[in-house]
What we know:
The chain is mainly α. Among the domains are: 5-165, Tetratricopeptide repeat domain (Serine Threonine Protein Phosphatase 5, Tetratricopeptide repeat), CATH 1.25.40.10; 451-585, Tetratricopeptide repeat domain (Serine Threonine Protein Phosphatase 5, Tetratricopeptide repeat). Helices cover 68% and strands 0% of the residues. It has helices at residues 5-15, 35-38, 51-63, 67-80, 85-97, 101-114, 119-131, 135-144, 149-165, 178-190, 197-204, 212-224, 228-241, 246-256, 270-287, 291-304, 309-321, 325-333, 342-355, 359-373, 376-388, 392-404, 415-427, 431-444, 449-462, 466-479, 484-496, 500-513, 518-530, 534-547, 553-565. The two termini are 27 Å apart.
Amino acid sequence: MKTMFKTIILTSLIGAGGALAAQVETPPQPVLTSVETTQPELFNPFNGTSIAGNYLSARFAQQHHDWGHASTYMEDVLEIDPGDADLIKRAMVLSMGSGDTEKAVRMAKKVLKVEPDSSLALLFLTTDAFTKKDYKGAAEHIGKIPESGLSDFVIPLMKSWADAAQGNQNTAHLQDNSIHIYHAILIADYLNQHGQIEELLERSLVVDKLSPDDVERIADIYAHIGKKDTALDLYGKILVSVPENKDIITKMEDLAAGKDMNLFRTIKTPEQGVAEALFDTGQTLFQEYSDDSARVFAHMALYIDPSMTKAKLLLAHISARHERYAQAIEYYKSITPDNKHYMDARRRAATLLEESERIDEALMELQKLVDDHDDLESLIQIGDIHRHNENFKKALEYYNKSAKTFGKKIPADYWHLHYVRGMSYERLGKWKEAEKDLKAALSYQPEHPFILNYLGYAWADQGTNLDESLKMIRKAADLRPTDGYITDSLGWVLYRKGDYEEAVPHLEKAVELLPYDPVVNDHLGDSYWRVGRKLEAKFQWERAKNYAEESDAELVQTIDTKLATGLTSPPVVRAANTVQGEEDALRP
């Protein structure tokens, strides 16, 4: 992918009206009309009936990722001043981004009356022409779009599909990046020109900066055309960078076993092809954190193909990234049970319900998946929710239920179950069971920094296996040198070994990385005291006390004692400094 892709697209969109300058939220397609009623409007200091008030309200809504209300306010502005071209362009973009595609098309027609070469307005009308199967009209709109960054990437795809709709294979210009080549393959397949597909696949493999998704898509096509060994080789290369990708592992197993696999979505109509091109553009923009533009392209894709599940998922991901959880949940829940993404979408919805502190709803959502589908992932996720809420006994209940489904041994691809169960045992003071699980997790993942840190710190916390603990935590620190908790662990195990001078710089670095963590500051205070820097020690203890929360009463009491008397004896070490919140990143 060209490195200037994001900048070019954004420049083109902003140049078409400036409405995409802020990353904002979208309401759903018509099937998701309940979203607007479930997502409350933000407090708006500019809310008013004047043109200035409505305009500022629209901008305020944009800044808070709420395109639904932004579009409504801009519509109110146009009622007062219907002839302003810049306002019409802004309203056009907001309409498309908020899912009101028909209004966006009407606005685009108005824009072209005052600005006949508006790239984005012409693109919207091209999209509309495809929905009407007006391929000649689509080609005419494309021909009017001026040379620009938008033309360099999106328009060649639209033009090639418009030509394909009329029986012409015009893809020679689709060779600059993996997405263009992929669509050249789709068009060749659509036109039954299969002899060119393998040549195009070979060309796609030499494109710079192929992502794992790009390689997977290429491998899928190789499998589709019967090139089994090439497909397996490419899948294997993906696992090198993403070793826990269960989808890839399953594909390799099924392909090796000779199972029928529907890996390649054959394009049946030009509209499907164009929708795919618009989605691919939006997906790329999302990966580059250009969520405003990604949102618009996702809605254009849905305008042409309302059943495109991955466009709905993309909109859900965008909403979730901006903490518009109610909206994201509705998108995830719009995925129907017959869709292969249904289970994952529902589990993601449960995750966001938990993030929204709707714990009972999250648990009900997951329990339904367990009851209706015997879904193991949901069973484990229920345990995770209980663990996050420090109900470790309940967490263990669900982790043990999950483990029983495997019989005698938890398999390697579920090593994380050992890890989370081990943490729960440790928090309940059942160290023998915790150590067994943590060791099992480490046997599957010997280079995983979080497991190395957790087990190593726990040993150091108990004053046992200090040499092995130090070795493990040094390895973890090498793997994640900017992780404040692991850096703290390294300093603390050195402290526990009595290497106070060596411990100090590591604990100082940990405080730099986690300046407001009370335990990390307390550790640095202890190490300062041991090396004779008593004034600095008291300063760090005071910081630790100030940053402590109400639940840290035991820590505060210990600090008060140290402030009064200093360290007169070897310290009583508190609960292990586990990786706060990061353990969930371990899930495959």
